[in-house]
Amino acid sequence: MGKHIFYLDNLRTFVIFLGILCLAAGSFLPAPFMPPHYVFAGQPGTITPFYYLFYEFAMTLVIPVLFFISGYFSASNLRIRLFQPYFKGRWLRLGWPLLFAIIIMMPEIAWISARSTGYSAGFFTFLTQRFLGRGFTLGIYGFLAVLLLFILLLMAAKKLNHQALRHTEISSPSPLFLILFVGVHLILALAVYFGLLSLSPQSLSAFQAFFAGLGFQPSWLITAALYFLLGIYAAKHRWFIQGGYIPGSVWIAAAIGFSIIYNVFPYYHVITLAFLSLSGTLGLIAAFARWGNQSSQTLLTLSHMAYPVWYLSEPVLENIMYFLLPLTIAAPLKLILALGLTLFYGYFVYKYALCHLGCFKTR
Question: Tens digit of pLDDT for each residue in 188-199?
Answer without folding.
Answer: 999 999 998 898
